Amino acid sequence: MGVYYKRYFRVFVSIAALFLLQQCGGLDDNDFIDSDQLAREQNIAILNFFADNNITGEEQVGDSPIYFVREISNTDGEETSSAVCGIYYTASVLDGEVFDSHLPEDGESILLRQGVNAILPIGLDLGIAQMKEGETFTFFIPSALGYGGFEFPQIPANSIIKILVSVDRVLNEVDRLNEEIALINDFVESNELNDLEQNPLSEVRILSSGERYKTIVAGSGSARPLQNQVVSLTYTGSFLDGDVFDATEGDAFFTYSFGNNQVIPGFDNGVGQMVLGERALVIIPSNSGYGASVRVIPAFAKEEFINNRIIPSFVQAIDPYEIIMFDMNLREIN
Questions:
Q1: Would residue 115 count as lying in a domain?
Q2: Same domain, 152 and 284
Q3: How far is CA 108 from CA 88, 111, 169, in A?
Q4: In a domain, 61, yes or no
Q5: Pick from 124, 155, 210, 223: most CB atoms within 10 A?
């Protein structure tokens, strides 16, 4: 059973851990490489690529070894630094084939948060900080700030990465929360959760952090969990479109100490409304869920980074700024 919220993590990407793995050429100490020599060689390779392809106007990201070319500028655009950004992108190895992309024809731009260690490769995080809304840059990221010694399909170890990025929109956390609340309200209305003929017992209640709470099956008694009490429940976790990302299985219970930051806040807030035997639906906006999570490009690299404890396991299922919901049944309070 893949439970993504037995422990609540602030999103944290260990740049130090990633950097160490990169400099060692991956996970095997026997594969140690001369990182300074590799950096020099990759710098030359990038500059040669510019010369061979008649690329001019290249710039560097501060003192870093990352180069970029402004494809489209927008001096009046909103700053991306520390903001929630919607981007489109095309990623390839230098002078190689595309290994990942998300384009306008694929749907809405993907969301990520710049500047909070929540983007991999970390060189992309540094690069996006140079951009503004409406701009398009091509970034050239050496392996030390890319994927280091990790190797993936179409991405050899110690590759220079080329990523074309367009910033479609820039918003703050409050803007994003307002978007999520609107989506949640639409979900409540379209599923008639406040229609007491279709869905009796109670209307949807709004909890302290914006969660929506709906009793599905009444419980017994009136006692709710108190801090430090151990609660056991069954649940199904899903997105608004119904896709399930996690669930208890069979007769298994999920057990934890209530009110002690062992689960995401929205889950705890929901459980705190329940009485024994009650079944409820709790809809959780990202501010009390997994927030910025971690955006990994390409997504197929997530498993490797999770296995090496560079990113937390919930990233496998939960993208940045996802609305999630839990159909939960409180079975025991001790």
A1: yes
A2: no
A3: 9, 9, 10
A4: yes
A5: 124
Structure confidence at residue 6 (pLDDT):
39
pLDDT at 244 over 50: yes
pLDDT tens track for 5-25:
434 344 444 444 454 454 444
223 Cβ contact list (under 8 Å, min separation 6): 275, 276, 333
Instruction: For residues 147 and 202, state if they share a domain.
Output: no
Last-in-domain residue among 123, 148, 167: 167
Of 210, 199, 168, 204, nearest in space to 84 by CA: 168
Which of 147, 167, 187 is a domain's end point? 167
